[in-house]
Design a protein that fits this description.
The complex is a heterodimer of chains A (338) and B (324). With 338 residues, chain A is mostly helical. Chain A is 58% helix and 2% strand. The radius of gyration of chain A is 23 Å and the shape is globular. In chain B, strands 1, 2, 3, 4, 5, 6, 7 and 8 form an eight-stranded antiparallel beta sheet that branches. Chain B is α+β, with helices and mostly antiparallel strands and 324 residues long. Helix content of chain B is 41%, strand content 14%. The chains are: A mainly alpha (338), B alpha+beta (324).
Chain lengths: 338, 324
């Protein structure tokens, strides 16, 4: 590979990245990492970014160079395709991290909540999780049945979220306990921890969905502090509505990405408006609308005050100032229970 | 993006070298880029399809009528699939890597997006793609071919990949460059008739477009197209809408448009682009240049041989010629 060659020319000459290609990858990695706060701990210096580049090449490299050589027709298209591949990989990395955090939270629940226990060594299924005081054997019910049991638990609450925490909690301890109880009861025996984590990941999809456009500290601090106290619409809602519903809306809002906040006011709107809000093509917009509905369903369940929560959410997401939702007609629809 | 080159750690170089593309693919790309004769797409072929900023590897499933082809997207990264796709092993394609053939996303696209022919897949693999996409079972698939696993949730990473592919194909399907018959079909001269400031406008247009007076006259007469890049400038100077400006050209014969859409011309047409110019602009220039050439040589009443005329135009208007 010659000096001064472009990434595209290098790839064409040798079928692999050269000096310019690696440097392009470095710059793209550093830019894309900024979108994922949970990964930013590893981006303090160039060495850490090179580690990310190296991991990406080890895990995805051959598929990526194959894709680039087959698809790219110049340096511009190579850069765009490479950025997309890198972003997909980073999202997968975030999901792995989030799944690890969810598992650690559930391990803590099993060890701290007297209703559950780890099957002791020497017994069948040692290391699995089960209801305390039962001698249930290792169980293997269909994952779908366990997920259905988890979804039968409603009124899942998420605790207040503060900017000091990198990752917002999936749900409060009481809600997690109720879901765990339903799942282990359905299993009628002990379950592999990995199976339980998979069930919780299905029930709490927001816990694993990377927000690509994180809140800045000022915005997050404002939410935790209780919002805009002087806002007349805020005052009206506070007088008329359940305080818990307003707080829940804030907590849900804190979990939403900037794109979701743009989309929410258009949840029941025309696809054209949704595409404009998302700034994406039709299929990607459909997918994001479906995911947002699913997340809201998972977070709000069958709340009595769901309509009120959605109204407050809609206000937070930028419905024209001064408009206070006062009925079902204005509420975005998130469909029935699963 | 900084141009400053950093020292690349040895561990990264090793990972990059281990990820080198297969020799078979490198050979296929070089061979395709150097081939003198490019034929129209045919069933079972793997092509790079591209238009504007969309570039996508596709498998040709069937040809429909004139200049329209049903294709399925093909991916090697990120690793993803769905229930209507098949995953083929590395040794079944020239890609040298496991690939997903997304039969369920098959869509019609025009000839003009076909860019580079990379090779052919075995008919049994193409049949398997259609079989699985039609909801057929996973049994009896050829060795090395397996049905994809279902996408069960909108949070599944494969759902995102699928949506991106679907949008990319949608954009390829909408690719077009020839002006449509819009509005009155009047030339700029007719649209500006009665205005006293036409001489001033012409002078302003020469400055705004960076063209000589003869070229501006051709544009006003509708004998030279206004490119998408020029339209806002012409609209600003004349006070017309961009749509009026873009439609104020003589319509192109459909035979000429169809011929220029064939992959055999793609490379030459792209080479005609000036710096910063779109492929659409280059195609318009070549099309109207060819049309003018045909009219001069045979008169517009006769039916010219478009391939011959295009060859002639390209031969006499190399990319670096200032007046091409």
């Amino acid at each position: 590979m010659g000096p001064g060659m472009s990434p595209y020319a290098e790839l064409h000459a040798d079928g692999q990245f050269g000096e310019a290609g690696y440097n392009l990858l470095f710059v793209l990695a550093r830019q894309e990492l900024r979108r994922f706060p949970v990964l930013q701990v590893a981006t303090a210096d160039d060495d850490a970014v090179w580690d990310v580049v190296g991991d990406f090449l080890v895990e995805r490299g051959h598929g990526v160079t194959t894709m680039l050589l087959a698809n790219a027709s110049d340096d511009d298209s190579l850069g765009a395709l490479l950025r997309t591949s890198l972003r997909h990989w980073l999202i997968d990395e975030v999901r792995k991290t989030d799944r690890g955090a969810l598992r650690r939270r559930l391990e803590r629940l099993i060890s701290e909540d007297e209703r559950f226990e780890v099957v002791p060594g020497g017994q069948a299924g040692a290391g699995r999780w089960r209801l305390a005081g039962t001698a249930g054997p290792p169980a293997g019910p269909p994952l779908a049945d366990l997920c259905a049991a988890a979804w039968s638990v409603r009124d899942v609450r998420i605790p207040p979220w503060s900017s000091e925490e990198r990752r917002a909690p999936a749900a409060d301890a009481e809600s997690l306990g109720r879901i765990m109880l339903a799942v282990l009861t359905e299993a009628a025996g002990s379950l592999e921890p990995a199976t339980v984590v998979a069930v919780f990941a299905d029930r709490l999809p927001h816990a694993l969905d990377p927000a690509e456009e994180p809140l800045d500290d000022n915005e997050a601090a404002g939410l935790v502090a209780g919002g805009e106290a002087g806002d007349p619409a805020e005052a009206l809602i506070r007088q008329e509505a359940d305080r818990n519903a307003v707080q829940l809306a804030r907590d849900v809002f804190a979990h939403m990405s900037a794109e979701e906040r743009r989309l929410l006011p258009h949840l029941d709107g025309a696809i054209g408006d949704q595409m404009k809000a998302a700034g994406r093509g039709r299929s990607q917009t459909y997918l994001r609308v479906a995911a947002l509905r699913e997340r809201l369903r998972a977070l709000l369940g069958e709340e009595q005050d769901r309509v009120l929560v959605l109204g407050e959410l809609r206000r937070l997401c930028g419905t024209p100032a001064g408009v206070v939702p006062d009925g079902h007609a204005d509420m975005p629809s998130i469909g029935g229970s699963r | 993006m900084s141009d400053q080159h950093r020292r690349v750690p040895e561990r990264v170089r090793r990972a990059g070298a281990a990820a080198a593309a297969s020799p078979g693919l490198i050979k296929a790309v070089r061979s395709a880029e150097n081939t003198a004769v490019v034929h129209d797409p045919a069933r079972g072929q793997l092509w790079r399809a591209s238009w504007d900023d969309v570039a996508q590897l596709v498998l040709v499933l069937r040809i429909i009528g004139t200049g329209t082809v049903v294709v399925a997207p093909v991916t090697t990264d990120p690793p993803a699939c769905d229930e209507s796709s098949v995953v083929v092993s590395a040794d079944l394609t020239m890609l040298g890597h496991t690939a997903t053939l997304w039969g369920g996303l098959a869509m019609e696209v025009p000839f003009l997006v076909f860019d580079l022919l990379l090779g052919n897949l075995a008919p049994t693999v193409v049949d398997a793609v259609e079989h699985v996409a039609a909801g057929g079972g996973a049994e009896m698939l050829p060795e090395g071919v397996s049905a994809g696993t279902p996408v069960v949730s909108p949070f599944d990473p494969a759902a995102e990949v699928r949506a991106e592919l679907s949008d990319a194909l949608e954009r390829l399907r909408g690719a077009a460059w020839a002006p449509r018959a819009l509005g009155s079909g009047k030339s700029l001269r007719e649209l500006l008739r009665g205005r006293s400031d036409v001489p001033v406008l012409m002078e302003e247009l020469t400055k705004a477009l960076g063209l000589g007076l003869p070229d501006v006259l051709s544009i006003l007469m509708g004998k030279r197209p206004v490119t998408p890049e020029q339209a806002p400038l012409v609209a600003r100077v004349t006070g017309l809408t961009e749509e009026e400006v873009l439609s104020a050209v003589s319509p192109l014969p459909s035979g000429l448009v169809s011929e220029l859409d064939r992959p055999r011309w793609r490379k030459a047409l792209r080479a005609q682009r000036r710096s910063g110019e779109s492929e659409t602009a280059a195609r318009l220039t070549v099309a109207y240049g060819t049309l003018a050439l045909a009219a001069r040589q045979t008169g517009s009443a006769s039916a010219p041989s478009w391939p011959q005329r295009i060859h002639q135009y390209l031969a006499t208007h190399p990319p670096d010629r200032p007046d091409r």
